[in-house]
Amino acid sequence: MATLLALNAAMRKNEVRMLQWKQVDWTRRPVSVGASKTEAGTGRVIPLNPIAFEALARGAGRFPESKPAHHVFPWCEARQIDPTRPTKGWRTAWRTALKRAGLKRLFHDLRVTCTTKLEEPQTSDMTIMAIARYVS
Predict the structure, then answer these.
(1) Percentage of the chain surpassing pLDDT 70?
(2) Can you say whether residue 9 is alpha, beta or left, with left for phi > 0 and alpha for psi between -120 and 50 degrees?
(3) What is residue 48's three-state secondary structure?
(4) Domain span holding position 104
(5) Residue 29 to residues 23, 36, 66, 82, Cα–Cα distance (Å)
């Protein structure tokens, strides 16, 4: 799910990691970014394409007791889940998946790929800047 969000919503690793359910608008289907690496990225609203929205819907189905303040990617250690805390990360899972696929990539490459995909159908620069919040 983290990979799909980064690849389809141009979200940074920590924007995905810190995401809370209250940031997802299930009616209009955008996600609001909380704190970001840059001031320009904080608070931006990203429309979710069907792939990203479906990934979040499947994730919500895994945690039906979730509250709005709970994290989409909850902290987990020794099979204990605490949804009030964000996950530390997914470095081991990411590296294992890349090794199995025979790839060498950074998680950030998913964000770059998303913006490249947006450019292919002649998406306006203003739209890309609004979604990815690249300053220029």
Answers:
(1) 96
(2) alpha
(3) coil
(4) 2-132
(5) 10, 20, 18, 26
